């Protein structure tokens, strides 16, 4: 949950905003591609952070629109944010890839199904790589920190492609 806390607090630290605006910014930045975060989790997290005193809401009305809560980070939230940044930066990196559950169980599938499943994994990696390449081209104006995450993700997809190709050659040759 620390990653969601950091995303929400960091975006609100950058600019006070409503939960809806926060959700739209997460979508625009494609953050859910590299951090497990969903629309319901954003709204839930904003409420939790407000209840803990890390965010405070101000009701704002723009024109004829209904009132909305615009959140800003509190001094307690600033302190919590800094502690989370320090703690998260020092954690051992974890890499969870759902397709590893498929790889682990390939031996229990008929041969033709194994090839089909491996092709599916290839397609998923290729789709991700293509999406990242498109986003990288569209988002040249974003800060270096955002661009470097896109580059990191691109390099990871390339490494996964190389790994999967090598695995397939060895695995399919044995069977």
TrEMBL record:
Domain Transcription regulator PadR N-terminal residue range list: 8-80
SUPFAM superfamilies given in the database record: Winged helix' DNA-binding domain
InterPro entries per the UniProt record, alphabetical: Metal_resp_DNA-bind_regulator, Tscrpt_reg_PadR_N, WH-like_DNA-bd_sf, WH_DNA-bd_sf
Domain of life: Bacteria
Pfam family, one: PadR
Protein name (database record): PadR family transcriptional regulator
């Amino acid at each position: 949950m620390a990653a969601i806390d950091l995303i929400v607090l960091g975006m609100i630290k950058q600019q006070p905003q409503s939960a809806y605006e926060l959700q739209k910014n997460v979508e625009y930045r494609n953050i859910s591609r590299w951090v497990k975060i969903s629309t319901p989790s954003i709204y839930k997290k904003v409420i939790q952070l407000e209840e803990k005193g890390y965010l405070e809401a101000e009701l704002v009305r723009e024109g004829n629109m209904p009132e909305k809560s615009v959140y800003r980070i509190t001094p307690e939230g600033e302190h919590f944010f800094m502690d989370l940044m320090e703690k998260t930066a020092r954690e051992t990196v974890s890499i969870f890839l759902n397709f590893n559950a498929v790889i682990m169980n390939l031996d229990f599938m008929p041969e033709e199904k194994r090839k089909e499943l491996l092709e599916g994994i290839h397609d998923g990696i290729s789709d991700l790589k293509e999406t990242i390449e498109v986003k990288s081209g569209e988002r040249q104006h974003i800060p270096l920190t955002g661009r470097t995450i896109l580059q990191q993700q691109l390099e990871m997809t390339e490494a996964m492609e190389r790994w999967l190709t090598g695995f397939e050659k060895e695995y399919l040759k044995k069977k």
